């Protein structure tokens, strides 16, 4: 049996992802992306709105593209770590949003 609990650090990262400071948001997304590489670490986030939050930052109009890139990378790692996040992303039409954002960043 696998017992899963949400570490307090994830709560802190979720709060930081809602910051007005883009540098803080970008760094929080980077940290989250690194955390979910640990096996089973992403499971507690299933009960949060992390996919929506990261998608908003990825597809948003941040002044610093590093925020969009870090959020996109964290989102990709999350979807790779746990397929249920990929299903949430699909329900939100996230791939279309990501595709549109990447075209905008490249141009």
Automatic annotation (TrEMBL):
Protein name as annotated:
Tetratricopeptide repeat protein 12-like isoform X1
- Annotated Gene Ontology cellular component terms: centrosome; cytoplasm
Q: Which SUPFAM superfamilies match?
A: ARM repeat (SSF48371)
Signal peptide range in chain numbering:
none
Q: Which domain of life is it from?
A: Eukaryota
Q: What species is this protein from?
A: Ursus maritimus (Polar bear)
Its BP terms in the Gene Ontology are: axonemal dynein complex assembly; sperm axoneme assembly
> Which Gene3D superfamilies does the record cross-reference, listed alphabetically?
Leucine-rich Repeat Variant
- Name of encoding gene: LOC121102927
